[in-house]
Amino acid sequence: MTEVFDLTCDLISCPSETPDDGGCQQLIAERLNTAGFNIDHVPFGPVSNLWARIGDDEPLVVFAGHTDVVPPGPITQWESPPFQPTVHGQYLYGRGAADMKSSLAAMVVATERFLLGHPDHAGSIGFLITSDEEGEAQEGTVKVIDYLNQRGTQIDMCVVGEPSSTEKIGDVVRVGRRGSLNGRVRFIGEQGHVAYPDQTRNPIHAAITALAQLVTRVWDSGNEHFPPTTFQISNMSAGTGAENVIPGELHAKFNFRFNTEQNSEALKEIVENHLRKIDPGFNITIEWRLSGQPFLTKKGRLLEAVQAAIQNAVSLEPDMSTSGGTSDGRFIAPTGAEVVELGPVNASIHKINERVRIDDLEPLARMYEHILFRLLC
């Protein structure tokens, strides 16, 4: 096996269910320190964060990622223990194998190789690693970016190791993400007997009509980079459990995935105005949480380097995509950095028996090394 395989196994062996790092960052820090990096551990609350840098000059090229993983789920359904790296056929199994401990291993090994081959390179290299990407994302990358801003550190280009590939390693590069806006609404009516609806205000009837109109509304048609904005209801609860009682309240949670045709404040205003047009007999409260604004990295030095690296490693012309959920790129892009996501195939992420193809590990490291070469040599 290879160095990338060995380091991936070491990282999988560290149980790091979010926000626990499980010792992963210490392993990475030791490797980077040996390679000449200055190491800063930047913890916030229970979250471990690592900032490492070598060099003082511009441009600053950063590898970003996370060591935390989602819960493994029912252990009995795994073919092997989730935190015990295991080879079955062509694949390496383990929680975090694809999302994203193999990317971190490939980034570290690629950087070590690059530094050995090009000790007089231009610019600087950084690593920004958190254990709070799969969780609340409140004490991780967003806080490290604040920390870097206070120090006057500007990231110029950043490769996030999220598993971007769909069928073959390198077939998809994410060049942006949609924004994510979460809402929680409470419809307050009046509890009463189902036989006397004229004496109550049923919040379920009011809510399903109003929310259905938001679900079916055409928010926009998207654009050349992003699909249309969507509104999805994720949770809804009401009722006392009795068949003959009209409930007094209904609670619902919803989410916007929005493109660059929209902005979060305008979406809030539309929803609030719409819901408050309901019968004034209902009291409605709305709470909002913005997970991230949309971002897009257009063609430039980083994207050209990524395309060349993929072509060099696996002879593919990648698709440029903005699909999928959110990533920590949403915290890095607003600083003005060019941000892309490049990583392994994502077919098994968050699933039972998460895995990565062993033969994809070395090509991924070659991609990362070639990106550094194109940008810093």
Summed up:
By secondary structure, this protein is α+β, with helices and mostly antiparallel strands.
Description:
- The structure is a single chain.
- The chain is α+β, with helices and mostly antiparallel strands.
- It has helices spanning 3-12, 24-34, 97-117, 141-150, 203-216, 264-275, 301-314, 329-332, 361-376; strands at 38-41, 49-54, 60-66, 86-88, 91-93, 124-130, 157-160, 172-174, 176-177, 179-188, 192-193, 230-238, 245-246, 249-258, 283-292, 295-296, 319-321, 338-341, 355-357.
- It has a six-stranded mixed sheet, with helices on one face.
- Strand 1 (38-41) and strand 2 (49-54) form a beta hairpin.
- Helix 3 packs across helix 9 and helix 7 packs across helix 9.
Number of strands: 19
Strand content: 15-25%
Number of helices: 9
Query: Quick one: biggest sheet?
Result: 6 strands, mixed
Strand order, sheet with most strands: 1-2-6-3-7-18
Low-pLDDT segments? none
pLDDT averaged over residues: 96
H and E string: HHEEEEEHEHEEEEEHEEEHEEHEHEEH
Multimeric organization? single chain
Structural class: alpha+beta
Question: Whole-Å distance between the termini?
Answer: 29 Å
Question: Any idea what the shape is?
Answer: elongated
Rg, nearest Å: 24 Å
Relative helix content: 25-40%
